[in-house]
Fold this protein.
Amino acid sequence: PGGPDRRSFGEGGFLNELIEKNLVGEKEIKRVISALHRFYQAETPTPEIEQWGTPEKLKISTDENFAQVEPFIGKTISPSAFEAIHHYTNQFYELNENLFHERIQQHRVLDCHGDLRLDHVHLTAEATTIFDCIEFNDRFRFIDIANDLAFLAMDFDFKGRSDLGNLFLRNAARELGDAGMLKIANFYKCYRAFVRGKVESIQATEKETTNPEEHQKQAARYFRLALR
């Protein structure tokens, strides 16, 4: 991930554009998984990175999200949806503590991409290129690969293509030899959708935003997806 300037690309396209043209199928999904697999295999797990896979450390991010979304309750997210997601998240930590520690023991927590969205994955006939990994905050990059992959799966869901999202996760679990990721994928998909809802809500309130209504609408859609 990272690499050349995105404007220098000719033919091909980013996944979000290819989906609009109905050009994403099993072959394209396989290529993306292979590129990610090579990337993850090149990463070395370390205790410093792995501590970020514990519920205590993950709660730093999820608690922060809930705090930052509070001002938007009743605007882009209903009080009941907020409560349901909040409760589900914190209960998941309690009920699945072993699962999180198992993921660490299996060395699934690595220095990942952190911002694996459809519009950061570019395909041409020859190359699969993944852009714009998170550079400003290690905490958002030192994550379970299931958390990394869940972002892309959630993005497929958001586009109304959960068939592709499910295919992506199933094939990734198989290719990475990681059946356990499917047990935790929904937790991370919920987290990712909630974060996007937060980001869109914040963007709707910024002075320089030209179309706040559009951001509000997108935020509400992400929060509904998180609830689902």
Summary: The chain has ten helices and five strands. The CA atoms of residues 42 and 196 lie 28 Å apart.
